[in-house]
Amino acid sequence: MRTIDxxxxxxxxxxxxxxxxxxLKRETVELIKSKKxxxxxxxEATKLTGIFGAKRTGExxxxxxxxxxxxxEVSVKVNEENVEVFSTVSGIARTGYEMEALTAVSTALLNxxxxxxxxxxxxxxxxxxxxxxxxxxSDWKKxxxxxxxxxxxxxxxxxELVLSYLRDLGAEVSKDADLLIVIGExxxxxxxxxxxxxxxxxxxxxxxxxxxxxxxxIGRDREGTLVILFPAREEKIRFFFESxxxxxxxxx
Length: 252
Description:
The protein is α/β, with parallel strands linked by helices. It has 2 domains: 12-138, Alpha-Beta Plaits (2-Layer Sandwich); 141-251, MoaB/Mog-like domain (Molybdenum Cofactor Biosythetic Enzyme, Chain A), CATH 3.40.980. It has helices at residues 26-33, 42-55, 57-60, 98-116, 137-140, 156-168, 194-207, 234-244, 248-251, and strands at residues 12-23, 71-78, 82-93, 124-134, 148-152, 172-173, 179-183, 191-192, 217-220, 226-230. A hairpin with a 5-residue loop joins strand 9 (217-220) and strand 10. Helix 2 (42-55) runs antiparallel to helix 4 (98-116). The longest helix has 19 residues, at 98-116. The two termini are 40 Å apart.
């Protein structure tokens, strides 16, 4: 057993929302609305429990990465025969907040059950589901369908590795390229895409500080073709495409 390695993924702003519902007797609902439960105000206690649950998700679920939480909101709606719980969790991280949002709802519903179990033995948690997630690769990834690419390298194994990543993105190999990959060879850039270069260099350094000075360069040549210059290292190629390959389509 092992967790998923997310160390090479870029940190982006992500959010997730979830929903849950628990069915109760009408008499129990009246106790909730009139705030006559012995344990106190169910609505406020349930909100607090949900926030607490979101923050402790990494401790409850062994394969869930502990991630920084910048915002949690839990709301509770008391209806005639059920209580609904809504959660939203967000932050800047390498992985999404789905489990935090779902755990917020789950623990909140368990709190409703706990506070009402002395009065209602018919309670049923009917539904828990994810309703929205944003900020992950599925939002910003763009394929290379219709994009012509070419790879210049004397390293056959590395060239084929790059081509496999490009084909997976939907690119078409052609000498008349919109995107040119150069591996381990000199190539003049007319201008460099500094913003992306700096981000890639930062994550590259975090991955392996010992390879500082062998940074990946990104820019355009005199014809305006997007060019990526790689040192002749397999780990650099894998790092870039697995972390930033989905961004390439947004530069073309």
